[in-house]
Amino acid sequence: MGHLIAVEPLRQPSPFPEPQRFKHEKINYSLIKYWMHYCNNTHSERCKPDKFTLPESFKVIDCRKHEDLKVISAPADCKYAALSYVWGNIENLGPDDGKKFPQVVMDSIKVVQELDCDYLWVDRHCINQDPKDPDKGEQIQRMDEIYSQACFTIIDAAGVDCTSGLAGVNLPRQSDPVQRYAQVNGVNLTYLGTPPAEQIRSSRWASRGWTYQEGILSHRRIFFTNEQVIFQCNNMTCLESFDIPMSILHQIKAPNLKMKPILKDFEPLVLADNNLGSHLMEFSKRDLTYDKDSLNAFLGILNVYRREKDYFHFHGNPFQGEKRCMINAWYHIEPGTRKADFPSWSWTGWKGAIKMTSYENPDHDVKLVTEAEGPITLDEYMTACKENPPQEIKPAIELTGKMTTLSFELIKWGSESILRNRDINEPTIQDGPWAILPITTDITCYSFLYLDNEALTGLYQFKLPIIVLEFGTISQDHNLIILVLREKGDHFERVGLITSRDAFKYGNKEKDNQPKPTFYKDKGRGWMTRALIPKPEDPIWEQELKKETIVLK
C-alpha cells in the first residue's frame, strides 16, 4: 500500500519546474542539500540548531579525512551531525580506531561528507562507556542539548543493529517493486511508496526506548529507509520520491508555528501539538534493554519541558505545582512488568504501555519524603530545585486522601446478560477484575480495575485498600480516579487504577459516546450500561471513606 498522486495536465505553463523522476538506485544527495538549504533560509527558529555550551569532554568523529578517521575533542563552535540507530547486541566496538567503526557509522560518515559537514557525534563512540566515568552521566543528562544542537540527525530506519548500514549508501536499497509512473486518460500518476509514517512505525528503530527522544529532540532528521530517504524538520516533511517545491505540499497554520502537511501520514514522527503526557504514552510503548534506563532514556524530553514550560519531575513524573501533577495520573492498558530500580508509583517502575488520566487530581495531597527534614510539598521541592536541589529525598511519596477497602470480582462477560442502551455507543466489555461500588441498596456500580501487573489476574474475589485521587466533582474531565494499593509492612505499593468518567453523575440523560469501563447492577433488572440514580446524600461506598495519610513506595 502507498500513496498515488494524480496530476492533471495544465492548460497554461506551470510556475514550478517539472518534478524530477525518482532514481531508486542511488541517493540524491543534491536533493537532500536543497531541502536543508530551503529549511535554513525559510523556516523559523524551530528548525535551527539550538545554541548551548557543550561539555568540555564532548567528542566527535572527525570526518574531514577519508582515511584517518578518529574520535577527537570537539573544536570550538563545532558544527556536527548526530546519528540515531539501534545498537543491537554487538560488543567491544573500539571508540578510537576507525577500522573498528561499525557499518552504520561508516555509512553515516559518508553521508556527513556528502552533505558538507565535518563532524559526526555517535553516542557509543563519543561517550566513554565506563559506567563509573562522570562524563558519561553528564552527557546522558544533556541529551536534549546534544541532539537539538546538531545540524541534522541521521536516522537508520532500516537497520536492526549497528552492522546493518544505511540503506542506499553502500548496500543497495530493496529493488523497486512497482512501476512508479503512469499516465491514465491524460492524468499523470506518481506512486510515492509506503507512507512515511508507516515505514518508520514498523521499523526496529521505532521500537527502541532510547531512539524516541533522539528523534523528537532533533530539529532536522534524515531517515534512511529501504525505499527512499525522508527529510523531516520541525516544519515540513519531504520525500526523495516526490521532488517538487515544498510550498506545494505544506500550508502555514500561523506565523512561527509548525507548517501542517496536506498529506497527514507523510510525517514519520508526529511533532505538532504533542504535550508531555502524549510523549509519556508513546515512550512507554517502547523497549529498553536495561530496566535502569527507564528515566535516562526520557530525560532529554523532561529537560526541554523544564526549560520551556517550567515542568519539574520526580523519578520521571512531571508536575508544575500542587494541582498540576502527573504522579499516579496514568494506568496500564494491559498488565505490565515491574522494574525494581524505580518505585511502584512511578511509570518508570513498570514495563508496559500506559494511558494518561486527569493531571489535576484535586482530592488528595502529595508530598515527597526526605531523609532528615520530613515530608515536603511539591511547591517546596520546586523552589528548592531552583536554588539548591535537595539531595536526600527517598523514592517514596506521602499521600493524604480518603481511603477505604473495596471488594473486587473477576467477571467473564460471555456468561452475563446485559440490558443495553441502543441509543448510545456501548462500552467495550473487558474480562478481568472489576471493583464493586455500592451506590444505593438496589444499585451497584462496577468499574474496571486496570492492573499494573498480572499477579491478581487469576483471583476470583479479593479485597484491597484504595485511596481516591479524584471524585470527579471539581475537575473539568469529571473523572472518578481511584488508586488501588496493597500494604507492605510500613508502606503501601501500587496495584492498579480505576478510572470512570461521569460514573456518578446522577440522573444524567445525555448521550455519552465515549466508552468507559462502568456497568451497573440492579437487583430487579440485572446488568445495565446506564442507570438513572436518585441522588442520595452519598453513595454507600463513599460513606465508608476516611481521611488517612500513607507512604507509597
**Helicity, as a percent range:** 10-25%
Count of the separate structural domains: 3
Quick check: average pLDDT? 83
Strand order of the largest sheet: 3-2-5-4-6-9-10-11
* Structural shape: globular
Task: Summarize the biggest pleated sheet.
Answer: 8 strands, mixed
Which structural category fits the helices and strands?
alpha+beta
Number of helices: 12
Q: N- to C-terminal separation?
A: 48 Å
Radius of gyration equals: 27 Å
Give the DSSP E fraction (strand runs of 2 or more residues).
25-35%
Low-confidence segments: 13-19, 94-98, 503-515
Protein name: Heterokaryon incompatibility domain-containing protein
Domain Heterokaryon incompatibility: 80-214
InterPro entries: HET
Pfam families: HET
